Every structure is written in structure tokens, then in C-alpha cells.
Amino acid sequence: MEFQNLTVNMLTTFLTINETGSISKASEVLYVDQSSISRRIRQLEDELKVTLFERSSKGVELTHSGKVLQNFAKRFLLDLKQLSQQLSSEEIKLENTRIGTYDSITSNIYPRFFGKQLKNFQEVLISNDTSKLITNFNDGNLDAIIVDGEFEGEIISSANNISLFTEPYYVVYSLMNSNQELINRSKITVDLLKKFEIFLYPATCPIHRKVVATYQNVPLSNIHQIEFSESAISLVLHSEMVTILPKSVAINYVTKNVSKLGMKQLEHKFDRHISLFAKNEQIINLLIEEGLSEDYLN
Q1: How far apart, in whole angstroms, are the C-alpha atoms of residue 137 and residue 131?
Q2: pLDDT in tens, 6-18
Q3: Global pTM?
Q4: Whole-number Å distance between alpha carbons of 116 and 179
Q5: CA proximity to 121, closest of 84, 88, 146
């Protein structure tokens, strides 16, 4: 297949029909009459030699071939948009850069960088929802994201990335906890961890996913999902429960409550790998030049 007659209009129309669920609604969105919409889809199907939609009285649904094209079309149109932006942009600056990351990154890993540069970015999205960050990046709403490197497979293939740092996870607990094993052990074993109820970030957060995946063969006690680490720490201070946090976050809270909180590494060690993903190498270079990596290293 040479695809000599494949056009951007065809792909845009195809995606709009799928998003709206019908040709008539796509016609309204695109301000194009229904006959032209139908003609574009017929031309697209003829060009690809496949059927893209199953039509019914309720609307349209993607066929298997349609689902394959959907993934390609989204990537292609985003790449085209990014190409246009790069060709029309004389210089990449923080003022026209949109970045997203976790609140633990801005507050515990790179506080000086974000404190200094926050006002200079076009936009900063702070969220513990990894899927939200990745979706905004893949859809072109963010130019860079700092997230766990293990999600590389979910990020658009054209993105550039570099590894920023690696750190272990720690159990944080109250020094008033009645379980003396927790106080006396040098590291937290699986058998000991099973005895506690645990506060974790929501299931969409990589910390939660990592803990569950690491101990998938171990029946951990009840896991309570909580959005913010401040809330988890407050509850840990006044209960027998524990929480699991990256080392940088754990240190931040324990040093503020040195007489009330303790932290210990898990015997079954597993690490957090944080990477910077950007739509091009120039943005990565810009962020590093502005002091992103030095902030953590120093």
C-alpha cells in the first residue's frame, strides 16, 4: 500500500466520527455536510482497503481495523502538530513551555527549581494521577512531564526522555506505635508488613501500583487509598497504621516530626525511577540548563 491519496482531512474526519459516535454529529463539529463526511470515510476505506466502522441505528462503532487506525491517526496528527510548532518556533523558552509532574517532585525533589521557575512556565500541572499527566502529554496539552520511567510504554513513541534519579521506598510509622517489632527491626520484612493497615496514594499513582505489584503474592492487610501524603502522615501519627513513601518524601516528613515519626527501609527493596519526557530534545536541554537536575543533586 502506498497511501498516495491519504489526507489529513480524512484522518481528522475519521477521529471526529469515532469521538461523536455518528456522522451527523461529526458534521456539526466539523461544519461539513453529511454527504462530504460520508464521502471522506468511503475514500479512506477504499484507500486502506478495510472497513473502519460498523454502522447501526444507534450510530457507528470501530471495527478491529478502525481501532488500529485510531491509534495511528492520533499519533500521526499529534506528530504533525508538534512538527508545525517546532518549525514555526524560533526559540524554545520556559515562557512557552508547559510541564506536568507529581506534587512530591515539586515539593521534595526539585523545590528550588520549581520555586524559582514556576512563574516563568506557560503552565505547570501538578497531579498525583499519572494517567492524567500522560494523557495531557500525549494529547499535546503538555510539552514535558516528569513521571515514573516505567510508564514509558504508555507515552507517545516520538517523545524524548532522560532518567533523572532513582530512590528506594520507606515505611513511615509513628514512634508511639504499640508494635515493638516495628520499632526494633532494622528493616521491615514482608511478614511484619502484613500485620499493618497501610495508607497509600490512589491506585492511579505509581507508588500504589509498585507496592501492589511487588507484594502481589503476599496478602497485605487493608490498603486505604488517600490522595495527599500530608493526610496519610497525619493519620499515621495518630494510629497504628503505616504508609509507604519514596525516600525523599519520607525524609521530608520525618525530619519535621523527628520525635514522633520513624522510617525504615523495606527488606524487599524496590526503587522509584523518575524520568523526564519531552516532545523534543531542545526542551530537555532547556530544563537541564535552567537547573532541573542540579537542584536534586545538590
Answers
A1: 10
A2: 888 899 999 999 9
A3: 0.64
A4: 43
A5: 146
Q: State the pLDDT at residue 264.
A: 93
Q: Give the model confidence (pLDDT) of 243-261 as tens digits.
A: 999 898 899 999 999 999 9
Nearest-angstrom CA–CA distance, 100 and 246? 19
Domains delineated in the chain? 8-88 (1.10.10.10), 94-165+273-297 (3.40.190.10), 166-272 (3.40.190.290)
Q: How far out from the chain centre does Cα 261 lie?
A: 30
Cβ within 8 Å of residue 215, ≥6 positions away: 190, 193, 268
Distance from C-alpha of 195 to C-alpha of 219, rounded to nearest angstrom = 10
**The total number of residues written for the chain in this structure:** 298
Tell me how far CA of residue 56 lies from CA of 21, 60, 203, in angstroms: 11, 6, 37
Is the pLDDT higher at 13 or at 201?
A: 13
Q: Could you tell me if 169 and 271 are in contact, meaning their C-beta atoms sit under 8 angstroms apart?
A: yes
Q: How far apart are CA 50 and CA 158, in angstroms?
A: 27
Task: Take residue 273 and report the three cell numbers written for it.
Answer: 525511577
Residue 237 · residue 260 · CB < 8 Å: yes
